[in-house]
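re: that chain from earlier
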Amino acid sequence: MPPELRTRTRDQSGIQGQGPQWVARLPREHIGFILGMLGVVMFSGTLPAMRIAVDGIDPTFVTAARAALAGIVAAACLIVLRRPYPKRSMWKRLATIAACLIVGFPLLSAFAMKIIPAIHASVIFGILPIATATAAVAIAGERPSSSFWIASAVGTCATIVFALRNGGFGALALGDLLLLASIVIVAIGYALAGRLSIDLPGWEVICWALVMMLPLSVPAAFILLPTNVTAIPMSSWGGFLYVSLISQLFAFFAWNTGLGLGGIARVGQIQLLQTFLSIWLASWVNREPIDSDVMFFSVIVVASVLVGTRMRVTRQTLPVQSST
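^ sequence. v structure.
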């Protein structure tokens, strides 16, 4: 393997080694799509799991405790793999990522899920890909083509129409406003994390952000600990574990790396599928009714994703930097 490819393999994984030969032969963009899809599948369980968690646990405790638990596991990963500290210039960006992905989005979405059903929230999240693409333009300097924006708009409009047909949008209630605010915040966080994942292994980005929050998240979790812990249903604890270990940590391992390899705007289009995956999960896990229109609009959304991921997106040419 050429030295420059070996360097890129090490930078993105954070582990010395060349990796499987079939992976090395794949274009970076294809690997990014695969990892992005894996991340989206894991993220799809976030809203249904959050709905279950906040049914029995206070949203503020869920936010603090998920950050604390994920941060402890993240610290263990960094220690076991003997990862060096990020460069000093990266810490400010990591702090902003932590504010978006570890505090802002989890807190707002947790309160929203106390108010509205998971299926309702899932259809609103259909606008997340275009929000992420917009953030990629503003933060990462990406320049999607007109065809990309058209494909993204088609998928977004299909999601909105789906919401209208199923009564998802009426007057904007408090839950809707909380979700819309959380979408803006998470889109900014995704763009920042994807941009930093070019210089720092994607899984390390979320790990270091979580570790940064430990001095705040651990004390907050103890202060907010419910007095009736034994009375909390096991299902709520199960939802809490999912949003802590999967949504807050391991899903980002794949997602951040995918954004760094495939491009924030382009890989972000895959999030359109998250709406319908979340709806199916909510129907199964939360036993919320599912409308027959889901299949029809799923086809439209999947088609827009396939088209959008093939459209040209101009990215800034940045040098490969060592994480040491």
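The chain has 15 helices and two strands.
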